[in-house]
């Protein structure tokens, strides 16, 4: 299946038109999909119709110039295409009923501004009836128009497998009648969690890309931030949406400090703060204050507050580890996540020493997933080294190195390991 | 849209219940069906005899073959169903969550695929 943005990249004719189409694609793709699929729940059909509309735009715009209302132009063409498909596929009374609906909607669309139902589309993509692992890929495709190939490389899956999962998920959206709507207030917070988790997953996947530089995965970070901004804009009263955006901005603000001039990995505590993006940190801080004033604490706000505590190093030259520890306590109470327990142990090591920290580190036997979780072994090795348990630290580093996929991080761990012998 | 709610539960557990408990459970299903009907969401629904009453039929070598017992031998068995009308999956899931079947076992929700 060709998706609009993939198609645009491949076409070399009409530079200005391509530029315009690309811009519309970025800002309108999800809006158009959400609008076209709202009634039928048929995302795949909406995407196919849109791909045709973008192809038509690339053919027409260089000749006739870009239309004044490119969104409405694309919508009209896509809708005509959908009607064609419906006419061919459906017969009888049902077909007439659907045409009338489509015609009604087209009427509304001619009002020039396409209503923004992207949030509803995101809720559909992250619906609990859709397999968790496909939430983020589905959102990246339906809302941003990324093609399956790019999404597959970002999530380290084969394009064929990814495309099959996306097709299956869209088929379920349609067949099961998963609604395109923003949930009622009483279930909003819980359902929003699914949307935010998916965005966070996409971000983390881009963030942890080996080398941090590989193109496809790297711009997954930008795409995730775009989605997080969108949710924060469409749900400005949801503190967790603001919290997530804060987290992503804080992390992204440190993107240039994660590697030194030689491309070597630099851990957070050793980063050169002059390489942090001040403007982005300021934006994040303002968002966090807005979120906290709403007064409903949650996981992403707590994570954002941890990031904020690290960013404080800019102002006072140190991190308030007691505050960080308290935030991790809150996070652990909320999530019970072993990942939180690991980070909490690191904070505890700073405030109360490595012995106390080691005692709180979860045991691998308690959670099988830890056995293959690199940060667990790296933290364990670090703490063991600090109490002088050199042999055990060496062994733990060895496992961490074996689990790491990023060369720069691997070298960093190897250096830490070789320091043990001295 | 129409959705089929398939109620799976461990039949053997039902047999261990005291008469009074069975009456209570049954009354809960009756009340649920009434609530569905009241809301105009009930299309149909029945309970099924235990799988010991099941017979299956297939064609082998061009001839119908009749076999004793249920199709799937699992811990939970299909014990009944409701066919409901709901505007979308969320509405169907809201009805499902109220179904006593979710306490007695597991309810599978499947959209009806109309033939037109």
Q: State the secondary-structure class of chain B.
A: alpha+beta
Q: Kindly state the number of beta strands of chain A.
A: 0
Overall pLDDT confidence of chain B: 93
User: Do you know the CATH topology of chain B?
Assistant: Alpha-Beta Plaits
Helix content of chain B: 25-40%
Question: How helix-rich are the residues of chain A, as a percent range?
Answer: over 70%
- Range of strand content of chain A: under 5%
Instruction: Please tell me the total number of domains of chain B.
Output: 1
The N- to C-terminal Cα distance of chain A equals 57 Å
What would the average pLDDT of chain A be, to the nearest integer? 86
Number of helices of chain A: 21
Number of strands of chain B: 6
Please outline what is shown here.
Chain A is 72% helix and 0% strand. With 422 residues, chain A is mainly α. The longest helix of chain A is centred in the N-terminal third of the chain and has 23 residues, at 15-37.
What would you note in describing this structure?
The complex is a heterodimer of chains A (about 425) and B (about 120). Chain A is built from 21 helices and no strands. Chain A has helices at about 5-10, 15-35, 45-65, 70-90, 90-110, 120-125, 130-145, 150-155, 160-175, 185-205, 215-235, 240-255, 280-295, 300-310, 315, 320-335, 340-350, 355-360, 375-385, 390-405, 405-420. The longest helix of chain A has 23 residues, at about 15-35. Chain A is elongated. Chain A starts with a helix and ends with a helix. Mean pLDDT of chain A is about 85; it is low at about 1-10. Chain B is of the alpha+beta class and about 120 residues long. Chain B has a single domain (about 1-110), classed as Alpha-Beta Plaits (2-Layer Sandwich), CATH 3.30.70.1060. In chain B, about 35% of the residues lie in helices and about 35% in strands. Chain B is built from 4 helices and 6 strands. Chain B has a 4-stranded antiparallel sheet with strand order 2-5-1-6. Chain B has a two-stranded antiparallel sheet with strand order 3-4. Classes of the chains: A mainly alpha (about 425), B alpha+beta (about 120). The interface between A and B is medium-sized, with 11 and 13 residues.
